[in-house]
Amino acid sequence: MKPNVVLIMVDQMRGDCLGAAGHPVVETPYLDTMVRKGYMFSNAYSAAPSCIAARASLLTGLTPASHGRVGYKDGVPWRYEHTLPGELSKAGYHTQCVGKMHVHPARSLQGFHNVILHDGYMHYSRNSEKAYSEHWNQCDDYIHWLKKELGSTADIIDSGLECNSWVARPWPYEERLHPTNWVVNESIDFLRRKDPTKPFFLMMSFVRPHSPLDPPQVYYDQYINQDIPAPPIGNWADTKDESKNGRIFNCSSGIVSERALKRARAAYYALITHIDHQIGRFLQAMGEFNELNNTIFIFSSDHGDLLGDHNMFRKSLPYNGCASIPFIVYDPGNLLGGKKGTVIDKPCEIMDIMPTLLDAAGADIPDIVEGKSLLPIIKDQNHKWREYIHGEHFRGDPMHYVTNGKEKFIWFSQSGTEQFFDLTNDPLELEDLSKIPKYSERITHWRNILIKELLGREEGYTDGKQLFAGRNSYPTLSHLNR
């Protein structure tokens, strides 16, 4: 039988928050074991670092420019001919998602045979669509379950925390009721209910460590009294915060008090360790069902969280805190034939997940897919590979970045501001080198690469010779009928 494939997705997890990546505080013993018995990609990126756009690349294998979602915009229907679960379903797989999808409509299957849904606090569904939001508690399977466990008034906002905030506190209920545990409960139950005559594809999709920053008490206690390093602050960062944005609970930038920032970082790390332990629980269940050694796993995230780096928070910016993601291919049964425990520094991104899993399953990869299977470089790191990643995101001043994991060039399309970082010697992006003459040749090299990437775009960013700032741009491109 073909191998099973399991995609473990987390939401808003930084690429550096793994013990195996050398993080000085975060403990991730099960994920570290997956690295030891698999492959870690140390230069993995989110090409459009926010939930919707990143997940469109995940499910379609396309660049943001091709799938049309280059920023965050809810309520735009998902109509894609080829999706990862759809192609695996065609190839004879029993396909199941448990947890976060963040598509529209929310219950759209996108090729899965079944979805057991928890999207977190969905502003659009709860607040914007009045007729639909009246039924949101029934639409979201986790909330529906939580109400049955605790009573009809229970909700995911009971802790008082907001879903895009640095405010942190422990989970107010029993650990077994936490959405992280629920995702694993339902995933293990799928192992019981799956079609035994077919290989399976399971996407186990966690909402955490995305805020609310609400780990179970035992995990919060593990970190809150530790010495947690302060976030890096670059020489280019705003260190004044004259408007006092850091006092606002859902700020995207600003100076937060040291005590509040420590609580936020402790809770974020605690959520990651909680997820890690629950992944360990799922892997034990896979062994009990005798499926572990016939399964290829990928662990990754849609984007990271700046978490105070450079006095910034959340996502949608080009800096490593939110653009860099964890990416592990786990092969406990040695089905891929590579050298286990290898750390691979070739630049990869979310759109590579679809062709990698289709390749592992022996399924056809649609011609329109722009991502690349990682299996050839797992087997041979000398295999010819892409030279760089192009990322972008629409925000107040929309950004574009190009990087090979060693250098990074950034361009903000409204202001025309440029930045350049030497990631080899400055992985924390502390020094912006864009104004230093000796780097002008490298900056020109990367600017020309970005010009090539943006040539022909509807926004009119370039004529092929130079970049034009101030052009109109949108979170979705016109072919999505925005």
In brief:
The chain is of the alpha/beta class.
Count every beta strand, where a strand is a DSSP E run of 2 or more residues. Answer: 14
Number of helices: 15
What structural class is derived from the secondary structure elements? Answer: alpha/beta
Q: Helical content, roughly?
A: 25-40%
Question: Would you give the CATH topology of the largest domain?
Answer: Alkaline Phosphatase, subunit A
Mean pLDDT comes to 94
Strand arrangement within the widest β-sheet reads 5-4-6-1-7-8-2-9
CATH homologous superfamily caption of the largest domain: Alkaline Phosphatase, subunit A
**N- and C-termini, Cα separation:** 43 Å
Write down the overall geometry. Answer: globular
Please provide the ordered H/E string of secondary-structure elements: EHEEHHHEEHHHHHEHHEHEEEHHEEEEH
What's the story with the biggest beta sheet?
A: 8 strands, mixed
- Could you tell me the radius of gyration in angstroms? 21 Å
**Residue windows where pLDDT falls under 50 for at least 5 positions:** 130-134
Give the name of the CATH architecture of the largest domain. Answer: 3-Layer(aba) Sandwich
